[in-house]
């Protein structure tokens, strides 16, 4: 048997789990997470929390799933597979957050990346006040890494964020709640700070910069980033390396973001790696 055959017959593929909502438009939520896991060579599993009717134009309807159905999905995956990393995304309401917290604790889920989906990058609150409190006080402290955007970081820290120093102060304040690593994301910052993130893990306070991509097609950046961090953790990378690799991936996916639909299009999860030939075919399509 050749080496190639031996490898393909017994692949040791890491497994990651996303606990998040569905985006019918395919740009964010579970759809973005599974594409990101696949890109990284990680087997993606999912526990759906809610179904959004959504497109690049926005969300027109949201239906939460029964908490028993959410818990059953998590149990089914974890009882069968060795899940190396988990990410949470849109958890919608208090009941769903409480159910996820209960499963994370009972099953002792490790390498948890909490994307605290609470406020859109434009500042609109996506979950009710009670849910915000529970997420902040109970779920975030269980995380290995939490990834708030500018507005979410304001809620978690109680600080206003307008400058890089504010981002740093917020990351340090959020760390005090017990989460191991904090990444304050700068997609919603103005001017030179757009796309600049701040990392704090108790020792290291680091500013992470790639390039600012001039595009309006940024739908799904937050989901993609947290899923890529989870994928890197599943692959055995340390937290800061995972965050840096994930940021590089998101930057590249933004550079190949898709002009699809009438609103801000999604990032291109696989598009940097399509052959030039195939991209030319797309351009010549009607
Ligand atoms: N124009 C950009 N250029 C480079 N990086 C960007 C840009 N916009 C966002 N990012 C990066 O994308 C990642 C996601 O951050 P962002 O602040 O957009 O999160 P979010 O608000 O949760 O996402 P979304 O807008 O999709 O809800 C961060 O690493 C951020 O720095
Ligand atoms: C189902 C679902 N989950 C999360 C988000 C936020 O997405 P992002 O912050 O990545 O744009 C979304 N728009 N829809």
How much is the radius of gyration in Å? 18 Å
Attached small molecules: adenosine-5'-triphosphate, (4-amino-2-methylpyrimidin-5-yl)methyl dihydrogen phosphate
Please provide the count of β strands. Answer: 9
Work out the helix count. 10
Distance between the termini: 47 Å
- Structure class: alpha/beta
Q: Tell the overall outline.
A: globular
Instruction: Estimate the helix proportion, in percent.
Output: 40-55%
Q: What spatial order of strands do you see in the largest sheet?
A: 3-2-1-4-5-6-7-8-9
Q: So what's the CATH class?
A: Alpha Beta
Catalytic activity: 4-amino-5-hydroxymethyl-2-methylpyrimidine + ATP = 4-amino-2-methyl-5-(phosphooxymethyl)pyrimidine + ADP + H(+); 4-amino-2-methyl-5-(phosphooxymethyl)pyrimidine + ATP = 4-amino-2-methyl-5-(diphosphooxymethyl)pyrimidine + ADP
GO molecular function, one term: phosphomethylpyrimidine kinase activity
Protein name: Bifunctional hydroxymethylpyrimidine kinase/phosphomethylpyrimidine kinase
Pathway: Cofactor biosynthesis; thiamine diphosphate biosynthesis; 4-amino-2-methyl-5-diphosphomethylpyrimidine from 5-amino-1-(5-phospho-D-ribosyl)imidazole: step 3/3
């Amino acid at each position: 048997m050749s080496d190639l055959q031996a490898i393909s017959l017994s692949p040791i593929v890491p497994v990651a789990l996303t606990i998040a909502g569905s985006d019918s438009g395919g740009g964010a939520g579970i759809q973005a997470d599974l594409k990101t896991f696949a890109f990284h060579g990680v087997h993606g599993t999912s526990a759906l929390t809610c179904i959004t009717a959504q497109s690049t134009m926005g969300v027109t309807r949201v239906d939460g799933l029964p908490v028993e159905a959410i818990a059953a999905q998590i149990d089914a995956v974890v009882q069968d597979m060795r899940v190396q990393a988990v990410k949470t995304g849109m958890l919608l309401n208090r009941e769903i957050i409480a159910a996820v917290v209960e499963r994370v604790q009972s099953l002792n889920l490790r390498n948890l990346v909490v994307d605290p989906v609470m406020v859109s990058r434009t500042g609109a609150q996506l979950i009710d006040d009670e849910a915000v409190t529970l997420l902040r006080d109970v779920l975030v402290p269980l995380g290995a890494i939490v990834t708030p955007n500018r507005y979410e970081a304001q809620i978690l820290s109680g600080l206003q964020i307008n400058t890089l120093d504010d981002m740093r102060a917020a990351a340090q304040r959020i760390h005090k709640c017990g989460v191991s690593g904090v990444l304050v994301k700068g997609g919603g910052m103005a001017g030179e700070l757009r796309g600049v993130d701040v990392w704090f893990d108790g020792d290291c306070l680091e500013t992470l910069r790639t390039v600012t991509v001039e595009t309006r097609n940024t739908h799904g950046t937050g989901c993609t980033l947290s899923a890529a961090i989870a994928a890197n953790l599943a692959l055995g990378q340390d937290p800061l390396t995972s965050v840096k690799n994930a940021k590089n991936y998101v930057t590249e996916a933004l550079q190949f973001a898709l002009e699809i639909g009438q609103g801000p299009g999604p990032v291109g999860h696989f598009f940097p790696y399509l052959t030039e030939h195939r991209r030319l075919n797309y351009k010549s399509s009607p």
